[in-house]
Amino acid sequence: MPTDVPQSSLIALGLTPHSGGDRQITGLSVDSRQVRPGHLFAALPGTKVHGADFVPAALAKGAVAVLTDRAGAALVQAALSEAGATLVVAEDPRQALAYAAALFFGQQPATMIAVTGTNGKTSVATFTRQIWQVLGYEAVNIGTTGVEGAYSAPSNHTTPEPITLHRLLAEMAKTGITHAAMEASSHGLAQKRLDGVTLRAAAFTNFTQDHLDYHATFEDYFAAKAGLFGRVLPEDGVAVINMDDPKGEAMAEIAHARGQRVIRVGHGEECEMRLLGKRPDATGQDVRFAWEGKPQMVRLSLIGEFQAMNVLTAAALVIGCGADPLSVVQALGHLTTVRGRMQQVAVRENGATVFVDYAHTPDAVATALSALRPHVLGKIVVIVGAGGDRDRTKRPLMGRAATDHADMVFVTDDNPRTEDPALIRAAVMEGAGPTAIEVGDRAEAILLAVDKLEPGDALLIAGKGHETGQVIGTDVYPFDDAEQASVAVAALDGKI
Ligand SMILES: CC(=O)N[C@H]1[C@@H](OP(=O)(O)OP(=O)(O)OC[C@H]2O[C@@H](n3ccc(=O)[nH]c3=O)[C@H](O)[C@@H]2O)O[C@H](CO)[C@@H](O)[C@@H]1O[C@H](C)C(=O)N[C@@H](C)C(=O)N[C@H](CCC(=O)O)C(=O)O
Ligand SMILES: Nc1ncnc2c1ncn2[C@@H]1O[C@H](COP(=O)(O)OP(=O)(O)OP(=O)(O)O)[C@@H](O)[C@H]1O
Ligand SMILES: N[C@H](CCC[C@H](N)C(=O)O)C(=O)O
Ligand SMILES: [Mg+2]
């Protein structure tokens, strides 16, 4: 066995053997198909099946120990003693796995933060990383767009699973990464994926509708997010809370109750990081804000008030982690657009602009369009759609938000996945109303929308942001909104 393969005893990983005695393990897996000889297999209760069903398969592949809950233990005890493998039973096996993975891989960047909220996680994590880099730190952001910054890696999840996450964190720490900003998705929090991460600070951006396919109720969805402050962030951590959100007060209460230092961000007088005013123009905005009562000015090459709020949230996180506030303020002028978030991707010969944005919730569509309005003198055209195999109830609300906040609406396909695209569009159209134009093919919708642009107008292509593929059925077809917009502009302006 190569010497760089980490090894550890179960007890050293905080896992107490229930039967079979302590073991040296050479790896961890949650999927029986990924088990290697010497592994601990975590047989987790799932939404579809119980991982315990796959214990025989895991043992056949060489697993020497199994971590599971009580229900799982009852199912696998006999098979384990027959194979001479160790059983570990935990009240919460997902949390036990997260702690074990952190100990197994050993290292993580010394300064880590996490961001939760329905919208804005990727943006805040990216700005946090950018500020750290301007200050001279080796920094990354980890989330929907993969790992970016001083280290690059793709990612299938917004919040990676604990094993993948801690392998990655250890690898990055070894290469000298000292600062990491993570996204904490509600799935990730509910499944305790980041419980083994040592956080210095955490932020809450906002709470609106999404993922009601996974979380049974709004309360469950909120409880998952609140877990970041109520459980994951330690007592000596710093909580950065957006007080403009109706749930800000409740989140700040949770942080206070844990004894965490709270930095409030928002428009209100009570906020330590307070937005005082902004002057939007075609290429960005001048922003006036106050840090602990002291007014500051910065020029941001970013569109939309929500991006200014995301920047202030990121600044508060960096300050919360100990950076000098004045240096942080000075760094803000260097920030650049987050890929696929209110990103200007093309300009027509007549001056009309095209933006790509990742708004895929009703609130995000409303926020993105109203944020764009003060930067635009003419009309706003929007392209909107909704993804298949996701929260169905948000579809008409997204259509409605588009009609309420734009002057012209095109309804098209997002990622239909395994659903019938026509039915998804019909649900979006129901909210968008009779004035909306339905065009199934996304490339055609972009071409038609770009064609409507007159001087001073802007088009917002919502929903897919940085994505480079369109998922139809289970296949992924190359598709990039930014590229399609450039092609449409070039074609209509007679450049190709
Ligand atoms: C809905 C959801 O989050 N599901 C996660 C959950 O799976 P599950 O409970 O559905 O698992 P299951 O299919 O019932 O199987 C139970 C167990 O048996 C195991 N198994 C299954 C089959 C097999 O042959 N062998 C085997 O061992 C599975 O690995 C699992 O541990 O537990 C699994 C193991 O921890 C996760 O991999 C899986 O994430 C899946 C891949 C996923 O797609 N999650 C998405 C929805 C997600 O997490 N998204 C958020 C972003 C959301 C957002 O903000 O937009 C993210 O952070 O990326
Ligand atoms: N602070 C905010 N308030 C409201 N809407 C926002 C905010 N920040 C971003 N948005 C909207 O949400 C979209 C997604 O932003 P971002 O990718 O930063 O969010 P996210 O929380 O990471 O999303 P995901 O759940 O997909 O990971 C943006 O394109 C924008 O339309
Ligand atoms: N992380 C989100 C992204 C949605 C992006 C949108 N393009 C879609 O496919 O619905 C989700 O998986 O729900
Ligand atoms: Mg994200």
Give a verbal description of the structure.
- Pathway: Cell wall biogenesis; peptidoglycan biosynthesis.
- Residues 340-465 form the Mur ligase C-terminal domain.
- Its cofactor is Mg(2+).
- The structure is a single chain.
- A ten-stranded mixed β-sheet has the order 10-9-11-8-12-13-14-15-16-17, sandwiched between helices. A six-stranded mixed β-sheet has the order 18-19-23-20-21-22, sandwiched between helices.
- Strand 5 (39-43), helix 1 and strand 6 (65-68) form a beta-alpha-beta unit.
- The radius of gyration is 24 Å and the shape is globular.
- The protein starts with 7 loop residues before the first strand and ends with a helix.
- The protein has three domains: 8-91, 3-Layer(aba) Sandwich (Udp-n-acetylmuramoylalanyl-d-glutamate--2,6- Diaminopimelate Ligase, Chain: A, domain 1); 107-334, UDP-N-acetylmuramoyl-L-alanine:D-glutamate ligase; 343-492, Mur ligase, C-terminal domain (Protein-Tyrosine Phosphatase, Chain A, Alpha-Beta Complex), CATH 3.90.190.20.
- The mean pLDDT is 95.
- The longest helix is centred in the middle third of the chain and has 16 residues, at 305-320.
- By secondary structure, it is an alpha/beta fold.
- The chain has helices spanning 55-60, 70-83, 93-105, 121-134, 162-174, 186-190, 218-232, 248-257, 305-320, 325-331, 362-372, 394-405, 421-432, 442-451, 481-492, and strands spanning 8-9, 17-19, 24-25, 27-29, 39-43, 65-68, 86-89, 111-116, 139-143, 146-149, 179-183, 201-204, 238-242, 261-266, 273-281, 284-291, 294-300, 343-347, 353-357, 380-384, 408-411, 437-438, 458-462, 469-472, 475-478.
- The protein binds ligand UAG, adenosine-5'-triphosphate, 2,6-diaminopimelic acid and magnesium ion.
- Residues 158, 360, 387, 390, 414-415, 463-464, 467 line the site of 2,6-diaminopimelic acid.
